[in-house]
């Protein structure tokens, strides 16, 4: 806990900056770093809360004040404060970054009460793909996109710029992938049910069954754990999730970017897996396919022609992602057979291999658009857009 003297010193440092200004205002370097490290703290809290949230909802009946919600809300409070600071002072952002951050924060804050109303009216929200939940993801999407742009445009060249940009893309990847955790938890819950083990508390199962008008049986469990078509998981993963890796590689411009961003997120999911399961919460399948696909994205960028790498890259990434998903799925049976569902780590949602063509076409379209946009800016390999000079002096 900070002492009153340290708080006073921090206030004396910050107060001179609290002046109204337009976005794009020349920003002192020390203030710029404080603002964006504040965003790292906000997204870290939201990441920890969201990682706990899905597992919590597969075990307990929903509660507005559940610990994961409070942890996520702490990150949101910091994000709102930073949005106000950027908007009032104009420091640390250009106009485009500020608009993205403001719209994202606004959408998120509107979605919160709508989600609460949705739960009051409809009871248990069976899927993470509901409209109010999608609004939460969309708000966070624009928010992080604005932060990425702000850091990308304003951070001075160097290792810190690259590392922090990669961290922001890892947070971006987590947010885009978040709704798919429903299937990652759901498939293991079905496997556990088939092995006479249940993760959810009886009150949650009874509530879900009453809402569906069914007894607590496998049909009810499937409706609760896997309420969306099988093709949604792989198609969304390839088109939306892996597009984040393509854009990260384009903007950061270094070999290994896509692999490291994917590995950072997958590594986090792997680390929290035992923390959740050893404390009695349900396990999830871990999306190891992202690391394989990220490596293929990096390899595709060894091709010099953007159009060629978009075509071959989309084909290669789609094949790699589906191959990894199938490999994980084939491990599900032996793992659950041996471990009775309690410690199944390598499961994966059904890969729906017939959807691979559509996933590949979707990724190709997004990849081609990304290449075209960056190409129009005549991007350089490492720093596609020259960052503006940041003032070193205090006001």
From TrEMBL:
Species of provenance: Nonomuraea purpurea
Name of the molecule in the record: DUF2029 domain-containing protein
Swiss-Prot/TrEMBL keywords: Membrane, Transmembrane, Transmembrane helix
Ranges that cross the membrane: 31-49, 69-89, 96-114, 134-155, 162-178, 231-252, 259-279, 285-303, 310-336, 356-374
UniProt lineage: Bacteria, Bacillati, Actinomycetota, Actinomycetes, Streptosporangiales
Keyword NADP: no
Keyword Hydrolase in record: no
Top-level taxon of origin: Bacteria
